[in-house]
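Hi everyone, sorry if this is the wrong subforum. Our group has a chain we'd like a structural model of before ordering constructs, and none of us has done structure prediction before. Sequence below.
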Amino acid sequence: MKFLLVFDFDHTIVDENSDTWIVKCAPEKKLPNGLRNSYRPGCWTEYMGRVFVYLGDNGVKEDEMKRTMTTIPFTAGMVDLLGFIGENKELFDCIIVSDSNTVFIDWILKAADFHKVFDEVFTNPAAFSSTGYLTVQNFHAHHCAKCPKNLCKRKVLKEFLDKQLERGVSYTQIVYIGDGGNDLCPVMFLKKDDIAMPRQGYTLEKKISQLAQDLRPVECSVLFWSCATEIMSYLKVLIKE
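Answer:
Right subforum, don't worry. Here is the predicted structure as tokens:
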């Protein structure tokens, strides 16, 4: 009996968007209008690439970025939840699927000593260049019309499950914890025994509710949360069953 926990990162594990949090490093803690207005829907990773160039051009170094990123707050109750999962790793496999980047997530999880809670992190690869600039790439290519071009979370989840099956690992239940519009695609992939846990007041909750109103509800169960201790309560019931 093993459960798979799938977490989004921004506004789910941490209570902010890590990509916009880094703007605190910019001169006057803001971006020039031209740069801010250069974002095009579905092309967030390319936009963040330009933000990192701007930070690099303004002399923002790796250590300053790291100091800033490790001050990002965790969502209410999340520290307790991740501690609980860490104590019960024999029951839970735990992955992150996020549109952030490897450098930010690594810094934040290691600073709080939560990196061992997660078995794998699927996110846009990032690294510092020889000149000290942070660079970021698209996670993968895909053909899903619903998702941003750099990341289809359904594809990531499906490939992970296929790989686990090859290793002889299957899950009693998948619990998907997220908040954003790009979390709907993997939620639609979940089966009736699985559960989606959208954060209250965020886009994923609204999209799932709209589908139910349109009489096209998702197949899995849905449980909303506002504090991560509510997720922990659910998991405690799950492992007692």
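For your construct planning: The radius of gyration is 18 Å. The domain at 3-15+74-123+147-239 is CATH 3.40.50.1000 (Rossmann fold).
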